[in-house]
Fold this protein.
Amino acid sequence: MKPDHSPRILAILLAALVALTPFSVDTYLPAMPAMMVYFGTDMGMVEMTVGSFFVGFSMGQLVGGPLSDHYGRRRVGGVGVVIFFMATILIIFSSTIEMVILGRFIQAFGGGFVTVIAPSIVRDRFQGREAAKMFALISIVMMLAPLIAPAVGAIFLKFSDWRMIFVFLGGYALTSFIIIFFYLPERPNVIREKLNFKKVKRGYLSVLSNRSAVGFMITQTFSAGVMFLFITGAAFAYITYLGMSTDVFPLLFGANIITMMLFNRLNPFLLNLFTPDKLIGIGIAVQFLALVAFMIGQFIDPKNIYMVVPMMMIAIGSSAIITPNSFACFLENFKDNSGSATALIGTCQFLMGAVLGICLGLLHSDTIFPMASLMLMSSTISLTSYYFLTRR
């Protein structure tokens, strides 16, 4: 086991690992129109690379979670980084969009191994309000990734092509490998015996049989679905529909992240006044009301940027209150199998993100009404789950 770091340093290290995912998604968003031209395909096929990433990421967490409980956080995270790196090489040399879609699935599968170990390490060492504060610290650091990622992608596009973005991601994977093996603490009492799949099954069933935990999982999954829908449709909504340039797109996209950072900094203060489960309700209510206003705007003046961007900023930004507190409340129920529990909630989030992204693709039109409708539906399910399932 590595020497313990201070909570702040540990949060930065874990955030650097978790940020691999938003970098993998957001850096190439400005390149999606260019990839459409390069492969001679349509935007729907390029958007499938986002959906395949979400599916692979969800499966990676589902497999990686129990493995990290059994074999240790560093071993599983290291294997994930290697898978991610090899898949990135495949994407760089892809000759068809179908190869990119496959490469993104494999890349995300390895990324799921890396990401799933971070909340588990927090659960190994913290609980209750302290865990919620750790998740908030991780969130504020990793928010820098989606804030700067589209700008990084736009810079690469100015001086090279879309493949250079994935060269950057390959380098990030190598950096993650160093962090995992040289700076992260290991789980106490790592099991050395052969993995018992019946025990893994029991671990997942123990999560699914806990009514309160399932409630937090559904609440978090559909709240996160709002952000996944935005990520999938942002390039079309801002660049194609609203007519913004690829240079302006990172600024509009980053405005959502800045709002998340503001909400995130508000969260520790609110934790002194409210319990984590109460804050979840506040965050979900804010998100729901913002999306109601967004939907109304689609009937009043759909192409008015001031009817779109501010509502997106509030709806996406509120997740900075919802996510850390729901993670803390969810994991509070699981001490010995936090890896499996983290894997299950992560799998549900990204699998639902993939499903919602596919639905958005199937409902694709020349407006952003489908995106607004699916976002409001997802938030409504989250709100319903919170009020009817999370109560102990």
